[in-house]
Amino acid sequence: MLSDTFQTILVKIEKKTEIDSNKLKNILEYIQNKPIYSYVYPEVIEEKLNIPISECMKIFVYLEHFNVLKQVYKLYCPRCKDVSSKIYENINELEEENECEFCGEELFEEDNPYKYVIIYFRVIKNG
Ligand SMILES: [Zn+2]
Questions:
Q1: How far separated are the first and last CA of the chain, in Å rounded?
Q2: pLDDT tens digits for 10-61?
Q3: Cα of 100 from ligand 1 centre, angstroms
Q4: Could you tell me which residues are beta bridge partners of residue 88?
Q5: What predicted TM-score, i.e. pTM, was given to this entire model?
Q6: CA of 101 to the centre of ligand 1 (A)
Q7: Which DSSP symbol is given to 3?
Q8: Exposed, middle or buried, 76 (CB in 10 Å: 0-12/13-18/19+)?
Q9: What is the SS3 assignment for 95-126?
Q10: CA 61 to ligand 1 centroid distance, Å
């Protein structure tokens, strides 16, 4: 069962999009069981709920509008083959701070600013 808040969000998103309401409901139920400040990953949703990553991303973006999820960012270093321990709350932070904390490699390319950015979704409301 969805909480009243999540049920309201579901109805609102349903009206605006063609996203399958069962899929949406399954994702919301999944998020409801996650602690605040934990992370949800499209890859896990795909595996667990059999919802393609592309659809999942769309739903996540909608859920961000309703303050259920928040996008945060990490940097990936191809030389270290590792992700930053730091989590960036704001995409603009990455313009100023874009060196690999391990090897110092600059992880920014003018023509493809998001090349090394990995997006995570943090749960900020779970019911
Ligand atoms: Zn590195």
A1: 11
A2: 999 999 888 889 999 999 999 999 999 999 999 999 999 999 999 999 999 9
A3: 5
A4: 73
A5: 0.85
A6: 7
A7: -
A8: middle
A9: HHCCECCCCCCECCCCCCCCCCEEEEEEECCC
A10: 29
